[in-house]
Amino acid sequence: xAPRTALTNIGLATVxxxxxxxxxxxxxxxxxxxxxxxxxxxxxxxxxxxxAGYGTPYALLLVLGGRLGDLFGRRRLFMLGMASFTVFSLLxxxxxxxxxxxxxxxxxxxxxxxxxxxxxATIQSACDPGRRARAIGxxxxxxxxxxxxxxxxxxxxxxxxxxxxxxxPIFLVNVPIGLxxxxxxWRFVPATRSSEPARIDAAGTxxxxxxxLSLLVPLxxxxxxxxxxxxxxxxxxxxxxxxAFVVVERxxxxxxxxxxxxxxxVRLPGMHRGLVLVVPFFLGMGAFFFVCAVxxxxxxxxxxxxxxxxxAPMAIGFLVAxxxxxxxxxxxxxxxxxxxxxxxxxxxxxxxxxxxxxxxxVDPLNLAPGMIVAGVGQGFVMPLLFGFVLAGVPAAxxxxxxxxxxxxxxxxxxxxxxxLGSLFLSLAAPSSLGVRDAxxxxxxxxxxxxxxxxxxxxxxxxxxxxxxxxxAAEPEPLLEAx
Length: 482
Prior knowledge:
Blueprint: H1 9-27, H2 33-40, H3 44-72, H4 74-94, H5 98-115, H6 117-126, H7 129-160, H8 169-172, H9 174-188, H10 202-221, H11 229-254, H12 263-266, H13 269-299, H14 303-309, H15 312-322, H16 325-332, H17 335-358, H18 364-390, H19 398-427, H20 435-456, H21 463-466
């Protein structure tokens, strides 16, 4: 029987499940950190590593994961990533010490980096152009809803204290889901690979890893540890590592070889202009979810379940809006992005006003108006950003393009926690502004980011020009041995 070459609806749902798991797990621990601290007696620096220990290897390996999918087959790498993600989720749930939890979280993040680039790459290569825009819109919807659902589900699970296990089921729940995903992937996800397989760019991969590590590790851990000398030294390496990376990648492409981040791909109008907006958008999102979890639990004393429920209206607004973006963008182009940014800014301002008026007696009900409006705005913005960035990427380079996009997204999320999250923690101290005003400061920064999206949307090419790069016809499939 000939292998599948097109992505069916069940296949699309399966790869989106992988994306959902990976993104939800970045956020699910936010509401569980106080419980983890009480159970394992972790230091503040270790608790930050529970979050960053997942996000850093995830960001480090995403582009490599995309290249490996292009080279060895996307279904194969997707299944390998999901299988290892399932195993390390189990080990996270059984972790006896803080160090073990941090280590297993790191391996869980590395597994996600193998799985996630295959999602967009499979959509790019196995969907016809008419379905592709809708599928990318669904990916954007999944990515947005996963962050909210991750915190909501985490709060419900921690509050339920199933079998007296506290925080551990937030990881153990991934095991049956992962097993179902593996069975569905083998049956319904097409086995695709690049028609132009390339060797691994070892020098570029090492320099990119050095740059990402030099940025994320000190920003995540430096404040909690009092900015030791090694953290300053690592930050000083970021610019020279990036400069060396750019030089190496340009030389490789000029020589006709295959850099891990091809400069010609970065030069596509939708790619480089879109990524300029992706960074602040996801930086603000990462900070927002982290700060909400801490402020509503520690400041307003809502507990894990009610703090998660406070985000539910945002998920509803996001989902409803994101399902309309493909149709609206086809008619109105980049103006939809500007409208989405404006709506999000209004929602954040309303939310800040609610916090100022009702604190500390905020609850899911009085926060709902701002949450739902902000969610609608985000639902217009996120899927369109993904679509603009990937519009001109040829199918043969889908793994590299999606890896670049998701790497940028993940680095921005982690930077949001490390920068605005750290700012919040500093300002929230009783000797400073306090929790309420610190929360409002972060919301003001988020509103400014949304306003920046309105202005920055004018940088993007209209969809007809964003897709001007030729799409290589990709001979399918990769015959994989059972």
